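ARCHIVE RECORD
Type: protein–small molecule complex
Small molecule: 48F
Source of inputs: curated submission
Record status: active
Notes field left blank by submitter.
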Amino acid sequence: MFQRVSEAAISKAIVWEFSRWFQDYLVSDVIVVGGGPSGLMAAKDLAEAGFKTLIVESNNYIGGGFWIGGYLMNTLTFRAPGEKILEELKIPYKEVEEGLFVADGPNACAKLISATCDAGVKILNMTKFDDVVYRNKRVEGVVVNWTPVSALPRQITCVDPISLEAKIVIDATGHEASVCKSLEKRNILKLADFGPMDVNTSEDLVVEHTGQIHPGLIVTGMAVSTAYGIARMGPTFGGMLLSGKKAASEAMKLITSEITKETSRIKEEVAL
Ligand code: 48F
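STRUCTURE (tokenized, with ligand):
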């Protein structure tokens, strides 16, 4: 029934294709650290706009907290205007009271992942962010290693990480805010910590504060609440999707303004 191929041909196909695209993405326009709802949304919008975008995700599975609502129940909630993004992603939803919507976690998460991949985002799963590449007082990339390396005792895993470069890095690591914390431990950034639950203030503030927190670094999703001391919001996800969208548009503005500056610099040089 199936085409006959050798075992070695299968191994060669994996090594060939992975090395081909991985080499291409050693330098990207944007690296998104964390493949939860905010990171996926940001990456999808960036790739759709033509930006070369890579997601680095420490788990084998992508989606972060978007598979499950609260208390291991896989119904997600969204407050208006979050349902507009559900429509954009073709995720079915129901209104349970005015402005409060529910959707099925596995369906919503699978559709967001699928839209992200279709947009052209590349994903490095089982890859853990370890540190930033920091030059000229700005974040210019990430240092990563295979997730299993950090899970094993140090004496049997003395494996150096590798670096990936990008014009912009987005911290979408959720409450961990891992990328921001790598700057905090060098006293480059001062973070707050997220506050107790209050959905009505938290969701708006997370979107409001989404943006560049340090040159080259944008923060999105629940990492924003850790960075700025905003209340936690629990299992409601419209803010995550809107924050991801804002992170993408901020990254586009920053990259475009750098290109404009560089073009005028070259024009001035040529004119001299
Ligand atoms: O936690 P997560 O879903 O973050 P988010 O996009 O959304 C938060 C909501 O799920 C929910 C909430 C509000 O509705 O309270 O919690 O802000 O996804 C974060 C992703 O980052 C990955 C982690 O495995 C998850 O998939 N991650 C965390 N640390 C690292 C990482 C790291 N050091 N390297 C790579 N990935």
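CURATOR ANNOTATION: DSSP finds nine helices and eleven strands in the chain.
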